Amino acid sequence: MYKKSFYIAAILFLGLTMSSRAQLKPWQHGIITDEFIFEKAPYPECHAATIAETSRGLVAAWFGGTKERNPDVCIWVSRYVNGKWTEGVNVANGIQNDSLRYACWNPVLYQVPGADLLLFYKIGPSPAKWKGYVRSSKNGGISWSEQQALPEGVLGPVKNKPITLANGEILSPSGTEDGGAKVHFELSFDKGKTWQKTNSLGDGKTVKALQPTILSYKGGRLQALCRSQNRAILQTWSSDNGKTWSPLEKTTLPNNNSGIDGVTLKDGRQLLVYNHVLPPDGKAKGARTPLNVAISKDGKTWYAAAILEDSPISQYSYPSVIQTADGKVHIVYTWRRQRIKHVVIDPNKLELKEIKDGQWPAMSGYTAPVVTKTDE
């Protein structure tokens, strides 16, 4: 009787395992969690999510309001507590005085090792005229300090997280859009209290780069990958801890003039989240779908790893990615401007195929959707 029950249980377990695998969509291997941070919100639109791991758990932030650029757009924060995301809390607005209010933009969370959780964001009428601000938290995002303006000329990270270098310096990826899109970097030698700015890269006219994400390699070499208006992800390299950088050049990966983000994994590989979309001929801007994950060992040869979203409806964009202490990869991103999505990946279970000539490789059983129109 015992043996019969054991065999029945084994068969049922095998059947469930095969069923769960069969439910995986092509290019979805390695995905553990796929959820919304919230289902309903007191505002119709949201965008530009960011995520960080603290000693008290995960924290996410985004901006939400009537519509991007509207003065009622604020910064909202949620914490992951007991397996659930808390209700978003409004932690920053753009009120200047009784008669003037601006929109808030692009929050960036960064947990300084051994110190505070920082929340950077921008306030202003447009990216060309915004100013940088920061709040800090000593308790993992439960409460926040008063708002502080960053020094004149310092914007803070414009979309993607800073990194802490081996020497303890914080390197922040930044840039400006006043007079054309250019990137620069900001260095702090005192855990974010003061900052120094590097020279800008790109002329803003022929080479238009935005929103860099920083990857690190053995020997201290750094690579920054940038969103661009040049139909490709741009790259630049540094060998002196981010003080100087090589001229911007195109990678083999396409870019649709939308945000990207990457992270250096504990095993030394690089993981990048982006829209693998080449804009229509002659255009700098393309649809913000699908949303893809790629892996590289050297930052030059990239391998297709996952497709997070591929619906031709609306947009899936502006990812933020980290690797937590347990080795899992956490990604948050905009879902149709209506919600913020949270996806967890086991990077050791991703199935990789080399991306050749900028073309996402085919997979049996998968047909890429035909995007005719999005709301971008």
> What is the CATH topology classification name?
Neuraminidase
Residue share in β-strands: 35-45%
- Total separate domains: 1
Shape type: globular
What does this structure look like?
With 376 residues, this protein is mainly beta. The chain has a single domain, classed as Neuraminidase (6 Propeller), CATH 2.120.10.10. 6% of the residues lie in helices and 42% in strands. The protein is built from one helix and 26 strands. The strands form six sheets. Strands 2, 3, 4, 5 and 6 form a five-stranded antiparallel beta sheet that branches. Strands 19-20-21-22-26 form a five-stranded antiparallel beta sheet, with no helix packed on it. The chain has a four-stranded antiparallel beta sheet with strand order 1-25-24-23, with no helix packed on it. It is globular.
Describe this structure in a few short sentences.
The protein has 376 residues and is mainly beta.
Topology at a glance:
Elements: H1 2-23, E1 31-36, E2 45-54, E3 57-65, E4 74-81, E5 84-85, E6 89-92, E7 103-111, E8 117-124, E9 131-137, E10 148-149, E11 163-164, E12 170-176, E13 182-188, E14 196-197, E15 209-216, E16 222-228, E17 232-238, E18 249-254, E19 261-264, E20 270-274, E21 291-296, E22 302-309, E23 316-323, E24 329-335, E25 339-345, E26 353-354
Antiparallel strand pairs: 1-25, 2-3, 3-4, 4-5, 4-6, 7-8, 8-9, 9-10, 11-12, 12-13, 13-14, 15-16, 16-17, 17-18, 19-20, 20-21, 21-22, 22-26, 23-24, 24-25
